[in-house]
């Protein structure tokens, strides 16, 4: 196997515990859209997370339109995207926390200087930047090392499309096989794996009673190994590096 040179971290619920905050804001807007179209169903943040985890807001709104046969005018769609970004960033600035154990691991990796590190996310660039700024991870991930499927590409997309991982590899001058991705969702895992990147599945941000289920989901999507605690990350990397 090629020598691993680069680590590509998903952001939401991999580096920071942002998904519950984000899906609260998304649910508010999704319910507004459903009400405006005379649809009685209403989402909680948790229900929206369960159904659409791993998608960014654009992908989620496209899925909602398909599910409920809705048609949003392009201008209205973009207005909702902008509102969602602003509402999520406000929640991030108020209450965001890092995933357990990740700070110590990032500090260890940075001190060793063995790997280049970047963030590869479906979320809007401003949201990812706000997240790493809020928890002090901007010392590891400068703006030039943050890649967003929603805002870094000529045509916005969302995981599981592998485009954002391929774009990050191109900008960083890396081959997919010399990178390792760290992902917590099925869509994120599929995005990295379909780009040809070995992927560590992280389930530590899920409730304990969901971790076994999500381990199976991520493994089925191609993640191997699966990690529950960030303290085990170097051992996971070693497993990947020792493959023939």
From TrEMBL:
Gene3D superfamilies: HAD superfamily/HAD-like, Putative phosphatase, domain 2. GO terms for molecular function: metal ion binding; phosphatase activity. SUPFAM superfamilies: HAD-like (SSF56784). Keywords: Carbohydrate metabolism, Magnesium, Metal-binding. Its cofactor is Mg(2+). It comes from the Eukaryota. This is HAD-like domain-containing protein. It comes from Mycena belliarum.
């Amino acid at each position: 196997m090629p020598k691993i040179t680069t680590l590509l971290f998903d952001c939401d619920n991999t580096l920071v515990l942002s998904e519950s905050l984000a899906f609260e804001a998304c649910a508010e807007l999704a319910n507004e859209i459903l009400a405006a179209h005379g649809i009685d169903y209403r989402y909680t943040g948790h229900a929206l997370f369960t159904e659409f985890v791993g998608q960014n807001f654009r992908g989620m709104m496209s899925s909602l339109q398909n599910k409920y046969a809705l048609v949003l005018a392009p201008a209205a769609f973009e207005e909702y995207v902008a509102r969602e970004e602003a509402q999520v960033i406000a929640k991030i600035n108020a209450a965001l926390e890092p995933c357990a154990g990740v700070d110590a691991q990032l500090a260890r990796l940075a001190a060793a200087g063995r790997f280049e590190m970047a963030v590869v996310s479906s979320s809007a660039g401003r949201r990812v930047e706000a997240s790493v700024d809020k928890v002090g991870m901007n010392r590891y991930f400068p703006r030039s090392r943050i890649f967003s499927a929603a805002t870094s590409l000529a045509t916005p997309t969302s995981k599981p499309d592998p485009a954002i991982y391929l774009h990050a590899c191109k900008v960083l001058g890396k081959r997919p096989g010399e990178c390792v991705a760290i992902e917590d969702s099925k869509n994120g895992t599929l995005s990295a794996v379909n780009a040809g990147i070995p992927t560590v599945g992280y389930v530590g941000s899920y409730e304990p009673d969901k971790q076994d289920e999500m381990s199976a989901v991520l493994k089925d999507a191609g993640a191997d190994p699966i990690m529950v605690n960030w303290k085990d990350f170097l051992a996971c990397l070693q497993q990947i590096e020792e493959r023939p």
